[in-house]
Design goal:
Distance between the termini of chain B: 46 Å
Oligomer: heterodimer
Radius of gyration of chain B: 24 Å
CATH superfamily of the largest domain in chain A: Cupredoxins -  blue copper proteins
CATH class of the largest domain in chain A: Mainly Beta
Shape of chain B: globular
Number of strands of chain B: 4
CATH topology of the largest domain in chain B: Cytochrome C Oxidase, Chain A
Strand content of chain A: 15-25%
Number of domains of chain A: 2
Strand order of the largest sheet of chain A: 3-2-1-5-8
Structural class of chain B: mainly alpha
CATH architecture of the largest domain in chain B: Up-down Bundle
CATH class of the largest domain in chain B: Mainly Alpha
CATH topology of the largest domain in chain A: Immunoglobulin-like
Structural class of chain A: alpha+beta
Helix content of chain A: 25-40%
Helix content of chain B: 55-70%
CATH architecture of the largest domain in chain A: Sandwich
Order of helices and strands of chain A: HHHEEEEEEEEEEH
Number of strands of chain A: 10
Shape of chain A: elongated
Chain lengths: 261, 588
Amino acid sequence: MLLAPIVWILTVVICYFFAAKVWWFPPPINQHGVAYDDQFMRTLVITGIIFFLAQFALGWAIFRYRDKGGRARYSHGNNRWEVIWTSATAVLFVGIVLMGTRIWAAVHLAEPDPNAMPIELMSKQFAFSFRYPGVDGVFGRTDIKLVNDAAGNPFGLDDKDPAAKDDITSASLKVPIGKPIKLIMHSRDVIHNFFVRELRLKQDIVPGMEIPLYFQADKPGVYEIPCSELCGLGHFQMRSTMEVMSEADFEKWKLQAIANK
Amino acid sequence: MSSPAIHGAHHAPQGFIRRYVFSLDHKVIGIQYYFLALFSVLVGMSLSLLMRYHMIHPDAKVAWFASLWPTAAQGGIMTPELYLSLMTMHGTIMVFFVLTTAPQSGFGNFFLPIQIGAEDMAFPVLNMLSFWTTFLALAVMVAAFFVQGGPPLAGWTAYPPLSAVPQAGPGEGLGQTLWIVSIAIFCGASLMGAINFIATTIDLRCQGMSLMRMPLTCWTWFVTAILGLLGFAVLLAAGVLLILDRSAGTSFFLPAGLLVSDQILNHKGGSPLLWQHLFWFFGHPEVYIAILPGMGVTSQILATFSRKPVFGYRAMVFAILGIGFLGFMVWGHHMFMSGMSPYSAMAFSVLTMAIGVPSAIKTFNWIGTIWGGSIRLTTAMLFALGFVSLFVTGGLSGIFLGQPALDLYFHDTYFVVGHFHMIMGVAAIFGMFAGTFYWFPKMFGRMLNETLGKIHFYMTFVGVYAIFTPMHFLGIAGNPRRYSDFTNFDFLGKLLPVHFFMTQAAYFTAAAQILFFINLFWSMKKGKKATANPWEATTLEWTVPSPPPFDNFAGHHPVVKHGPYEYSVPGAPRDYIMQTDPVDMHAA
C-alpha cells in the first residue's frame, strides 16, 4: 500500500525537476542547436506523458486492487487491447525517430559546403591541437616521425615543405562567427572525442580514420571542449576551448600567429 | 553419471565434495552460481562506493587507500588511473559476474528443470564444468587487482587502441591481459551453460508441458540462452583477436601511424571500429541477457500475488521472442558517434525504436496483470512492482538515446550512465531480489523475514531513484562520463552539488543492503520453516517439498494438465489450480 504513494511522489518530483530545468543545456549557438532543442523537447513531452501515466497507473492499480479478501477477476487478456497498444507505441516511437532524422541528416548527410573553412584537429593523450592552413590555404606536409610536442610540433609538420611555412598550430580552436567550418579530425594514439555543448555536436576521433565535421557558430564567446571518449588516465583533464570571434578579430589573430612562428 | 533423461531416480552422492563442491545436481550448482554472484556484487558495489567517494573528494587522503594500493594510492590519495581501474572492474564484475550469472545461471539452473518437470539439466557434467569455469574466470579477473600496474583502465567495453597497446596507460599491461583472458574463459563457460539450457528446455519437458504451458520464466531462460550462445561466441572471437594484437603483433584493431607514449608502433591495417562492432554485437544482446530473466520472474510474481493469470500470455511470449530477435540488430546504436556510416545510424535507430515496441507490450501486460487483481503485497511482489516502475523509467530514457540526432549531445554523458543503470543495472537487480524473496523458501526450506524485507525494499527503491535520476540532469548539462574529477572544467564545477547528493544516496542505498545480507544469512539458519507451497502458486516447483529432494520429484513423473497461471478460476474450489491438478478442477 505504501508503495502507491511513494511511486506517485517520486513521479511528481522527477517531473518537477524536468519542468524546472534546474540543471540544463547551455543556450545553443547555431541553427542546428535550436533544431536540436526542439527535437529534445518534443521527445521530452511525449516520454514525459507516458512516464507520468504509466507510473500513475501502476500506483493506482496497487492502491485500487489491494487484497480485500475477494477473488480476482479471471482474465487471460484482451487481444483488442494488445493490438491497440502495440500499434500505438509502434507509430509513436518510429514517428519520434523519423522526426529527428532531419537533424541528423543536416549534420552528417547534407552536401558539404565547398567553401567551408578547413581546420585540422589532432588529438593525443591528453591534448587537442588545431591546425590552420595559413594564407596560402594549403596544409603543409606532415610526417609522424617529425612529431615533437615539446618543440610545439604536435602534427609533425615538415619545415622543408613551403606550404607548411605559414601553417598555424594552436592549442585552442578559434573560429570566425557565422562561417561554415570543416573540422578534419585525426587522432594519433587512442580514440578521443570532440564535444562542444553549445554546438550540440559530438564526434569520436578515431586513429586511422579521417572524420570531417561541418558546423558553424553564430554567437561570440569561449566554449569548453571536454574529451568525451575514455582515453586513459588524463581523460578528465583533456580540455580545450573554442573561441568564436568576429571575422576581423579572427583575421588579426591569424596574422599575429603566423608572425609569431 | 549418466544422463537423467534416460534413467529414472538416481541417488544423491554421499561425500561432501561430490555433494556440495563438484556437484552434478542442478540445484546445488544454481546455489553455487547465486553465491558467486553475491560475492561479486559485494565487490562491485564496494568499488562503486569508492568511485562515488573519489568523485566528490578527489584530493582526500585516506590512510587505508595507501595500504590497499601502495603505488596507485600513494600517501592515501587515489590517482585518476586507480579511479579508472575501479570503474573498469566495477562494470566488468557487475555485467559478467552478477547480471549474467545470478538471474540466468543461478535461478535458471535451480528452477528451469523443476518448472518443466525434469530431474536435472540435460548435461549435468557440463553444468558442473560451466560453473567451475565461471569460477576460474572470476579468479583470473580478481587476480588483475594484484598484478604490477593494477587492473586495466579501458572500461568494461575495452575499446582499442587503449586496450590493445600496453604503453597506453597503467593497467594496460598484465592487468588488461588478465582481463581479456578472464572474459574469454567466461565466454567458454557461458557457451556451455547456454547449450545446456537450450537442450534442457527442448528435450526434458515432462508430459503435458507443451511450450505454451511453460511458465514465462522458462521462456526467458530459454531465449536468454539462445542470445548467450550467439553473443558469447562472437565476444570470444573478438577477445582472441585482441589478445593476438597485444601479444602476437597482429593488427586486427590497430591502424598504421600510431604514436603512443612517444613511440611509433609497427601495426598497420587494422580498424578500432571492428572491435566495437564485434563487442556490441555481443554487448547489446548482453543487455537482454541481464534483463530477460528479470522480466520472466516479474511476470511470474505479478500473477502469483495478484491472484490473476498473466495478461496476454501469448503476447508476452512473442514479445520475449521479438526482443531476442531484434536484440541482435540494434548494436549500432552504441556507435552513432563512432565514425561509422551515418546512413547505418539511421537504420539502427529505426530498429532500436522497433525493439521498444515489445518492451512496451510487456509493460502494458504487467499493468494488465495486476489490474482487477487481489494484490498481496509480499516483499517479492514489492520488488516485482518496483521492477516495473524502474523498467518504465529506464526504458523511456532509451527513447532519447536511440535517436542519433539526440545522441549528438548525450553520447558518453551521464544521461547514458543513468539510463543503463536504471534499466540493466537496478531493474535487473530488482528482478533478482524479487526472485530471491519468492524462491528462497524453495531453495533453503525457510522463509525470509518479511518485515526486514519490506524495510529493505523501500530503502532500496527510494535510494536507487535518488542515485540514478540526477544522472539524467547531469547528462542534460553535458557532464561526460568516466571522469574521475570534475574540477578542471568551469561547467562541471557547477554540477558538483548534484554529484554530492548522488554519493550520499549511494551510501544510503548501500547501507540498506546490510539488511538484505542479515536477512539472507539469518533466515537460512533460523527462518520460519517453509511449507511446500507458501505462496499458493501454481507452477511445478511448488508441488515438491521445500527444499526439493535430490531428483526433484522423488522418482515420480509429473504430468501437466493446466497452463502456468490459472489463478481465481471461477467455480474452482481454491483460487489457484496447480499445473498438475486433475483436469476436472477446471469446473467452469
